[in-house]
Amino acid sequence: MTAALEYFVPGRPRPKGSWKPVPIKGRTVLVPDNKRSAPWARVVAAYTRIKMSGPPWEPDVPVGIRIRFFFRRPDSHYRTRNKRPDRSPEGLKDRSMPFPMGRRNYPDTDKLERNVWDAITKIVYEDDIQIVKCGATKEWGEEEGALITVWKIKV
Q1: Which residues contact 114 (CB under 8 A, 6 or more apart)?
Q2: Which element (helix H / strand E) includes 119?
Q3: Which of 29, 42, 95, 119 is spaced 20 to 30 A from 147 at the CA atom?
Q4: What is the C-alpha end-to-end distance of the chain, expressed in Å?
């Protein structure tokens, strides 16, 4: 794999979410149920436009994508020192979660991935149907964001 594009997008990663049907003037229209997904997608698209030079890759080019999503550890994972969390490696509690998991704060990896895929469509590639190899992880990091690597697959 030779990376064609690799860049970091700062900010809290947000999932694509689901669609909900809403009746408007006698018709049913699908609208996203996550209001925070669009702002994150716009940030991803903006950083991608800065990194991408030229038009999107041709529609017959297979694409690989790897995304590492980073989340900041909550204060509850650290021991306190002077009533403040001790964010040093020694301050980390033994029983803290090894990965960002949980229903409330850390969304499904596939929904996070889908939001990035859709955000960079028409910027890097014509359609996300071109993605034939993918992978994503959720990890702890000092800075929240996503490290995105996209490459053309040689056939």
Answers
A1: 15, 16
A2: helix 109-120
A3: 95
A4: 12
